[in-house]
Specification:
The relative contact order is 0.12. With about 210 residues, the chain is mostly helical. The protein has 2 domains: about 1-35; about 45-195, Ferritin. The longest helix has 30 residues, at about 1-30. The protein has 6 helices and no strands. Pfam families: DUF4142. This is DUF4142 domain-containing protein.
Length: about 210
């Protein structure tokens, strides 16, 4: 009698446990469909595929940053021809604008190919710098022009270098190499104006500890 009662009860317990697991799985997927994330913190849905390799959030952000750099540096470089007091600042502004016209053509073509949506306006910080410069002229314009652009290039350089080092996409890697070279060139040009306030630049992060042998 005890043996006959044991088997039905065991089957009921197993079926109950399976039902619980199914319901729990459905609940997790319903509440948090993107809960499973990669080691980088990005979910699989954040990545797309292309013939040149996978495209992740950092790759898309890189293209957006290059596009936004051009959206404010092209008109600012042109503006310098009218407002700058130094001939060197005018020359540097013209070179920055010219380089970004070419870079903008490349980033728009690559973004279209990789299906990355690009902005059509500068970001809020860039708009603020443009508004600030629009109120200045002469020597004051030269100083703010050099400081704002040099600081912005320093930030972009760090971001682009990280993408160049770690992207999994061949076309992004090649374009990041171009962008790194352009940003480095522009930092050097801006420094050649003699108006950059190096003390105002962010302090580099402390070095990583040397691993013990």
């Amino acid at each position: 009698m005890n043996r006959l009662q044991f088997r039905p009860m065991r089957i009921i317990e197993v079926l109950g446990a399976l039902t619980f697991l199914v319901v729990a799985t459905i609940t997790v997927l319903t509440i948090a469909p993107n809960a499973i994330r990669s080691a980088s913190g990005a979910s699989p849905a954040d990545w797309t595929s292309a013939e040149s390799g996978p495209i992740g959030p950092s790759d898309r952000d890189f293209l957006i940053k290059v596009r936004q750099a051009g959206l404010w540096e092209i008109p600012t470089g042109q503006q310098a021809q009218e407002r700058a007091g130094s001939q060197r600042v005018k020359e540097v502004g013209l070179m920055l604008a010219s380089d970004h016209v070419k870079l903008d053509e490349q980033v728009r073509a690559l973004a279209a190919k990789l299906r990355v949506r690009l902005p059509s306006t500068p970001n809020s910080d860039q708009q603020g710098w443009m508004a600030e410069l629009s109120q200045l002229s002469g020597e004051e314009y030269d100083k703010v022009f050099a400081d704002r652009l040099r600081a912005a290039h320093g930030k972009v350089f760090a971001a682009v270098a990280l993408v160049r080092a770690g992207t999994k996409n061949d076309e992004i890697r090649a374009f990041a190499q171009v962008a790194v070279d352009v940003v480095m060139k522009h930092m050097t040009l801006l420094e050649s104006t003699g108006r950059v306030d190096y003390a105002a630049l962010p302090t580099p992060p402390p070095p990583s500890p040397i691993p013990s042998k």
